[in-house]
Structure formats: structure tokens, C-alpha cells
Amino acid sequence: MKNTFTALMIILFASLSQAQDQDFSSDWKKVEAFEKEGLPKSALKVVEEIEANAKKYDVPALKIKVLLFKSKYALTLEEDAQLKIIDDFRSEIKKNEFPTKNMLESVLANLFWQYFQQNRWQFYNRTKTESKVDPNDFRTWDLQTLFDEIHLHYQVSLENGLLAQRTELGLFDDILHTQEDSKIFRPTLFDFLNHKALAFYKTPENQITKPAYKFEISDEKLLSDAMVFS
Q1: CA-CA distance, 28 to 163, in Å (whole number)?
Q2: pLDDT at residue 229 is higher than 50
Q3: CA-CA 20 to 30 A from 208: which of 21, 23, 73, 217?
Q4: What is the residue range of 38's domain?
Q5: 189: which residues sit within 8 A by CB, 6+ positions away?
Q6: Which of 205, 206, 213, 176 is nearest to 193 (CA)?
């Protein structure tokens, strides 16, 4: 299961650019060098130094970049790294506000969604429970519970919509690998977050726990007293 989560982080990092933060470019080069040498502990130490020195800056992309790199090294260096990574994201979400919080919510939803995609067979064979078996361990949840959690985080990521529409996506250039001319179609943070959420909602898999035919009462008269029908 740890290998599965490692694969998820690799997928996530595939969307990161190689651009370096202007104020910490030399430090990120050290991180890259340690990675090439296969020294994750040394790389993590530099990332933690960047994190400590960056506290005086309020740079959303830098905060998230540090968290992503720490998550990557946790998979190699720590037991139950999956749970720690999710807990770290939740902790950072509580500490931050728009727009960092919104981007973190989207990344967290995406982590849960990718985890499902890598472990479909486990969720398909799992019985639905009335409540979470373990509220802190997403690996034990049933399918509907996981989808509800994904839905929640995507919805929260879209809060403060007007502000997000006025926020240029370029604010997060340092952690995004965007295709050429993609910002013509998705120039704002809201466009990006909405695109990520829609990718989840458009897939038929998030409907598999619902009946093919959903019965709904659309005529209020059907709820009237029995005398109405006599």
C-alpha cells in the first residue's frame, strides 16, 4: 500500500515545474543535488531550512512546494507516511487562508481521488458502513465515505469564488507545469480549481454508489392528505 501512495506522489510531482523560487534558488538546487545522490534525509533537512527561513514571506506557492517535498521524503523515511501526509495537509489547511487554503484543499481532494484510482478493487469489495471505521485513516473508509470526503474538499476549494476569479494563476507558477497557451483558457485560480473539480465530477465512477434510477418526488400534490386523492 505504501508503494501505491508513493506512485500517487510521483503522479502529483509530475505536475510540478522545475522552476525555482527566486529567493531560495540555491537551496532548491541543493535539494535537487541530494536527490540525485539518493540522500533523502539530507534533502529533507534543506527543505526544512527553506521552510524555517520562508516563514517571514507569505508566498502561497512556496508554502505548498515545501509541503509537497516533505511529503515525498516522508514516504521514504517514515512509517505510516500516508497518514502523516494527509494529516500534514489538514494541518496546513487550518493554518492558512485564501488563496493557499483553496489550493491545498484541491491538492488534498486530488490525493484522495488518485488513491481510489489506484485501489479500486479494495473499495468495490468493501461494505458501506454507517460511520467511518477510523475517522483518521482514509484507507479503512468505504467507497461512499471516500467520495463524500473528495466532494467536500473540492467544494471548499471553490469557496471565495469572486476572489479566486480575480487571482491570477501565475501566483502558483512555481508549483504548476502548465501547457503552452493553457492560461488563455484558464487564466485565474478559479478556472484552475474549477477544472480540477470538474475532472472528478465528470467521471461516472463517482456515481457508482448511487442507483441507476433515482426516485424523486417532483409534484408537491403527491405529499397531500389522502382526502385529496379520494
Answers
A1: 31
A2: no
A3: 217
A4: 2-206
A5: 99, 102, 103, 164, 165, 167, 168, 169, 171, 172
A6: 176
Residue 70 lies in a domain: yes
Asked if 175 and 61 touch (Cβ cutoff 8 Å), the reply is yes
Cβ neighbours of residue 111 closer than 8 Å, sequence gap 6 or more: 8, 12, 85, 86, 89
> Is residue 144 in some structural domain?
yes
Identify whether the C-beta of residue 157 lies closer than 8 Å to the C-beta of residue 105.
Answer: yes
Indicate whether this model's pTM tops 0.70.
Answer: yes
Residue 220 forms part of a structural domain: no
Contact of 154 with 104, CB cutoff 8 Å? no
| Number of folded domains that form the chain | 1
Cell numbers given for 33 = 543535488
Per the domain annotation, does 114 fall within a domain? yes
Query: Helices 2-13 and 81-95 sit at what angle, rounded to 10 degrees?
Result: 50
CA–CA gap between residue 13 and residue 15 (Å, rounded): 5
Number of C-beta neighbours around residue 166 at 10 A? 11
Task: Give yes or no for a contact between 143 and 208, defined as CB atoms under 8 angstroms apart.
Answer: yes
